[in-house]
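Workshop exercise sheet. Pairs work together: one partner reads the sequence aloud, the other fills in the structure field after running the prediction. Swap roles for the next sheet.
Pair: D.N. / O.F.
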Amino acid sequence: MFLRYKWETGMLAWAMHRLTGVAVTFYLFLHVYTMTKLHDGEAAYNTAVSAFSQPMWKAAEALLFGAVLYHAVNGVRIVLVDFFGAARQQRRLFWGMMGASAAAFVLGSWLIISHAVH
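Structure field:
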């Protein structure tokens, strides 16, 4: 007997929450590694940090912003569903919060990318 998952709203939210959690954790390790360059001196730190000003890293920063935004907003949705009895409104909450997050992502990404150009 095989279990078959239906990729409906709940499963999509669950999978995306896990993926964004992994992405944010990866960034945390990268951030800590970069901060350890302070022990190697100012020149080593400046070299490490200067790599992050490249356009590719600015795009990655925008994606990181999206991952953090999704993870945080979905976390709020989970709290509402689990602790405040909003399970019946789960689908509506998900899509409403994702719509608001999408608007915030567009604005935030534009700000991140626009600073890369200047």
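Discussion prompt: Residues 55-83 form the longest helix (29 residues). What would you look at next?
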